[in-house]
Amino acid sequence: MAKTTAKPAQLNPKQLAEALSQKRADLAEKKRSLKAGELVNPRSIRAVRREIARLLTALNGPAPAESPSKPLKKTRK
């Protein structure tokens, strides 16, 4: 399986969207192959799902750190 040449953080949003659609198509093909009994390495599905997650994270940006509006109460047990 070929990996993306550049890290997701180095790609612009258009390239990320293209890579994401390509990986989703690849995932669909691997799932079809698995059901047909043609897929040699089922772990490749897991790898593609992780690559999709990396692309989505880069596309959506890092989540901001949530700071509570009120300080949390400390409770004793």
3D architecture notes:
This protein is mainly alpha-helical and 77 residues long. It has a domain at 13-60. It contains 2 helices and no strands. The protein has helices at 13-36, 43-60. Helix 1 runs antiparallel to helix 2 (43-60).
Helix/strand layout:
Layout: H1 13-36, H2 43-60
| Average pLDDT figure | 84
Secondary-structure-based class equals mainly alpha
Low-confidence stretches: none
* Continuous helix count: 2
Report the sheet with the most strands, covering strand number, pairing sense and barrel closure: none
How far apart are the termini? Answer: 52 Å
Percent in helix: 40-55%
Give the SSE order as H and E letters: HH
Strand content: under 5%
Q: What is the number of E strands?
A: 0
The rough form would be described as flat
Backbone CA Rg: 19 Å
Which structural traits does this protein have?
77 residues, mainly alpha, flat, Ribosomal_uL29_CS, Ribosomal_uL29, structural constituent of ribosome
Compact summary:
With 77 residues, this protein is mostly helical.
